[in-house]
Write a structure and sequence with these properties.
The complex is a heterodimer. Chain A is mainly alpha-helical. Chain A has helices spanning 3-28, 32-53, 58-90, 95-100. Chain A is elongated and about 55 Å long. By secondary structure, chain B is mainly α. Chain B has two domains: 2-86, NADH-ubiquinone/plastoquinone oxidoreductase chain 6, subunit NuoJ (Four Helix Bundle (Hemerythrin (Met), subunit A), Up-down Bundle); 123-160. Chain B starts with a helix and ends with a helix. Classes of the chains: A mainly alpha, B mainly alpha.
Chain lengths: 103, 160
């Protein structure tokens, strides 16, 4: 196996395991902040996959990855703002409590 | 010389990334979990630099780790933990095992790892030219996303 293929295999395996860990946190926890952090773990896994799969055209891969990072950064801030606003109203970050209170 | 050690270095970085992602998900304190996310982002940037995409790695460290993740850490520190955290581990194990199985089967059976080709050189002017040329709407989207980041931060600071 060539060096590139070995690096690619390590990267894809790591990305798959990280995606699985992110999905675990997303489905097992009911805390909104923990769910947001798990989504960020998923994002980190997806970024590696995107770069590897677009690597046939390095400029496109770079442009796509930069766009992805910018959009995710904006999304993170918006979600944190929503969570802060919900916490001020309900004093809880549990999705079940928020559901019971009809938020 | 360095090329020969690339898979080993990639393996070490990958192991630390998986450890950091586990800490993000399983740390008891949400502030420590957010700190682990910053470590994960930095390790991810190192891994991407190892793949040959230094520009993406720099952007990831500056914008994602330096702004977004730091914002999460500050916000979580101010909010606190939000009370006792409830877990449903069975549901989590089932879904993560399903995702891992599907991803590994698809990626390794179709030999996706052979698609990786290390880039020769990525010039900043060619990336900027591509963004300002054919990808102008994408550039607008990046500006809107970063502007939203600023506006939301200001609105949280003013408690609206």
């Amino acid at each position: 196996m060539s060096v590139e293929a070995a690096v690619g295999e390590v990267a894809l395996t790591a990305a798959a395991v990280m995606a699985a860990v992110g999905v675990y946190g997303l489905t097992a926890s009911q805390n909104l902040v923990r769910q947001l952090l798990s989504i960020e773990v998923l994002f980190n896994a997806v970024l590696i996959m995107v770069i590897l799969l677009f690597s046939f055209n390095p400029v496109s891969a770079t442009v796509f990855a930069i766009t992805l990072i910018a959009v995710v950064s904006g999304e993170v801030i918006v979600v944190v703002a929503i969570i802060a606003s919900l916490y001020r109203r309900t004093r809880s970050l549990e999705s079940l409590v928020l559901e019971e209170e009809g938020v | 010389m360095i090329e020969a050690y690339k898979p080993l270095l990639a393996g070490v970085l990958a192991a630390f990334m998986i450890l950091a992602s586990y800490l993000v998900v399983r740390s008891r304190d949400l502030v420590y979990a957010s700190g682990a996310l910053a470590v994960l982002g930095t390790l991810n940037a190192a891994f991407i630099a190892l793949l040959g995409y230094g520009l993406v790695a720099a952007f990831l460290v500056i914008v994602y780790v330096g702004a977004a993740v730091m914002f999460i850490i500050v916000a979580v520190s101010m909010l606190g933990g939000g009370g006792l955290e409830r877990w449903q581990p069975e549901k989590g194990f089932l879904s993560s095992a399903a995702v891992l199985t599907v991803l590994l089967i698809v990626m390794l059976s179709s030999a996706m790892y052979t698609l990786y080709k290390p880039p020769t050189t990525i010039r900043l002017d060619s990336v900027a030219g591509t963004l300002a040329g054919g990808y102008l709407p994408v550039l607008g989207l990046i500006f809107i996303a970063l502007a939203a980041t600023l506006i939301e931060a200001i609105s949280i600071a003013r408690k609206r």
